[in-house]
């Protein structure tokens, strides 16, 4: 990696996945493919839900915002990491690092919140179907989404303000591929970062409460589903809910373990895998788990693709006729 004199600069040096430039290129290609898959899947879901009026229901309204969060979330860290690997230069300016921390924490917090709202939506739909339309009316859905984005923004602002108010000493080397708060705390001049610990405890408690709410929602859902006489109905609900619960638990567990344990002095394979599990994997696989396995979503996708194919066929015929007349 290109050496950067950080003593005369205010930025940081992000550690590479490997000192071998060939492996850095391989990492950049893998991240690029993953990034493109995440963008394609999530933008496709946003487009389908927006165009198909049959999907203008609370569940799909929340799915659209989850996909929007995923597009933004993966765009905060992965493009910067790809650029650093391709240029063999891990330097990131102070301003870039501040923005990365701000948006990373804000979007991660918003994602946890929207997953909680989605679990509540499924709870009402399955356990209280007669009251679903009254509880999940359009105004309530809009307020819930606004609360999700506002809560995430407040969390991001608090972490960013407190984290970058701590004086730093020594080499500004962050042992991660992005500006990771636990790793940045290791650079502080002293262990006097009680404010950041307090903010982290607050957000961790909020995330834990969200996890408890999600688990309780699914416990009620499963207890209701087990009373369904139809085996096909039970299988359908379980096949939808279990992957949701697994992804939420996996995301929160990986992020919680990384943020709560003491920061290490080097980037180990475990650190790397954990960071990838909660920064790259969820936005890439959420479209498959939450949306593209849904029959209504697949039917809407086929409709959109068939319309696009028919339009292209008409355009091709028009061009062909024009060429023949010429």
Automatic annotation (TrEMBL):
UniProt-recorded name of the protein: Olfactory receptor
Membrane-spanning residues: 28-49, 98-120, 140-158, 197-221, 242-260, 272-292
Similarity remark: Belongs to the G-protein coupled receptor 1 family.
Keyword Cell membrane carried by entry: yes
PROSITE patterns, sorted: G_PROTEIN_RECEP_F1_1 (PS00237), G_PROTEIN_RECEP_F1_2 (PS50262)
SUPFAM superfamilies (alphabetical): Family A G protein-coupled receptor-like
GO molecular function, one term: G protein-coupled receptor activity
Domain of life: Eukaryota
UniProt keyword Oxidoreductase present: no
InterPro entries for the chain: GPCR_Rhodpsn, GPCR_Rhodpsn_7TM, Olfact_rcpt, Olfactory_GPCR
Function: Odorant receptor.
Subcellular location(s) of the protein: Cell membrane
